[in-house]
Design goal:
This protein is an alpha+beta fold. The protein is 20% helix and 27% strand. It has nine helices and 21 strands. A hairpin with a 5-residue loop joins strand 3 and strand 4. The protein starts with 29 loop residues before the first strand and ends with a strand.
């Protein structure tokens, strides 16, 4: 799970106005278009237009908001785009306006229209829209990484597409196909290539949103839906980075209940954690670890990530049973751990086991793997290891990030190269 900006945050920030100027050198985001309307309304661009015949290595169709079509084409011999003028060494985890976002709509027939790239900016919604009145919306989070050879890598985007389809079914929304989702992500990333941090400096966070944008007064599914993708360059989610975080166990409030929507990435799940999370941070904790709402003694997840405990060669994590988000990083860590000879169990994990563990770590798209330095439960603080960064969490973090960044051979076939 990831922390993200609200719809209200989708606007141009004057502070970043200088960042949105097109680069002075040629870039390899090359679009061909015969539409003078597009050129009139969207010039000057941080993208250079060329005929597709000049580039044969990679291309696919897109469209711009005015309806004109174009093809995005790339060649290994293209010039490297000029990076956005920001401080790459001090990236935080927040919304930074980039160049383009992607939009696609679906009416009552259940079919999504052809998607389009448009300038990043505010969106228009009816006051009676389903997402504003009844919370009919969900989101995904994934990242793009830049390799030293200029290649761009995505990590398991089809898993995000499948999870969005599962979540959409739960809250009565149509969803893009896996192919539509993945192609939309590719188009958005390539159109914003100059915002991808240099290797080792961070990643481009990708936020797909699916929302009930149509007006509805009675409690019912909205008559229209919008699929939207925006991106932002990011550093570490927790300010501690790979340094250990400190969690507190919440015993009164709960993130999810059986039969609810805790197992899908709906927007309402995140509003539910804000009160406990804010109180915890005010006391100096990094985040909150939630317990099950029935027995109040089994671990569920942290506000923004899944949780694992380590005891010897055994790694245990709460089982996915409807109240816990099936994290893609969680799933990947389990496979990596098994491949490295660890015993992995998905089951109920009690607070007593947690407090007796050798080490604890969290996983999520935003954090990847975050070691836990301490857990506080009912006023009692338990610390892990001498520095809080356990051997297992460090090993798994190194393995997974090496795959994501293209620093190791991807024998899992998890990465998708865009160039």
């Amino acid at each position: 799970m990831e922390s993200g900006g609200a719809l209200a945050g989708l606007h141009r920030n004057p502070t970043f106005h200088h960042l949105l100027r097109p680069p002075r050198t040629a870039v390899n985001n090359l679009l061909s278009s015969s539409s003078s309307t597009y050129k009139r309304h969207f010039s000057p661009l941080p993208l250079k237009f060329q005929k597709q015949s000049h580039f044969a290595s990679y291309s696919y169709n897109c469209s711009i908001k005015d309806g004109s079509a174009f093809q995005v084409a790339y060649s290994a011999s293209s010039a490297t785009p000029e990076l956005a003028n920001i401080d790459w060494d001090n990236l935080g985890f927040g919304v930074m306006p980039t160049d383009y976002m992607y939009s696609m709509k679906c009416s009552q027939d259940g079919n999504f229209s052809k998607g389009e790239l448009q300038r990043f900016g505010n969106i228009e919604l009816s006051p009676a829209s389903g997402i504003l009145n009844y919370g009919q919306g969900l989101f995904e989070g994934l990242k793009a990484y830049k390799r030293h050879d200029g290649n761009i890598l995505l990590f398991r985007p089809e898993e995000n597409a499948l999870r969005m389809k599962m979540g959409a079914e739960r809250i009565c929304m149509p969803s893009p196909s896996v192919e539509q989702f993945v192609e939309a992500v590719k188009a958005t990333v390539l159109a914003n290539e100059r915002w991808i941090p240099p290797p080792g400096k961070g990643s481009l966070y990708i936020r797909p949103l699916l929302m009930g944008s149509g007006a509805i007064l009675g409690v019912a599914p909205a008559p229209e839906y919008t699929f939207l993708i925006y991106v932002s360059p990011v550093g570490n989610y927790f300010k501690e980075g790979m340094a250990p975080i400190n969690l507190v166990i919440e015993t009164e409030m709960h993130r999810a209940t059986p039969g609810g929507t805790g197992g899908v990435k709906t927007i309402g799940n995140y509003a539910a954690v804000l009160k406990a999370q804010s109180a915890a941070k005010a006391k100096g904790y990094s985040d909150v670890l939630y317990l099950d709402s029935v027995n109040k003694r089994y671990l569920e997840e942290v506000s923004s990530c899944n949780v694992f405990i380590v005891k010897g060669n055994l790694i245990a994590t709460p089982a996915i049973k409807g109240t816990i988000l099936p994290g893609i990083t969680r799933k990947s860590i389990i496979d990596v751990a098994l491949s490295q000879g660890f015993q992995v169990e998905e089951r109920q994990v009690s607070v007593d086991e947690l407090l007796d563990a050798d080490e604890v770590f969290c996983t999520g798209t935003a954090v990847v793997v975050s070691p836990v330095g301490s857990i506080t439960h009912l006023g009692k603080r338990v610390s892990y290891g001498s520095d809080g960064v356990g051997r297992v969490s460090k090993q798994l973090y190194s393995t997974l990030t090496s795959l994501q960044m293209g620093l190791a051979t991807d024998n899992m076939n998890w990465t998708v190269a865009l160039k």
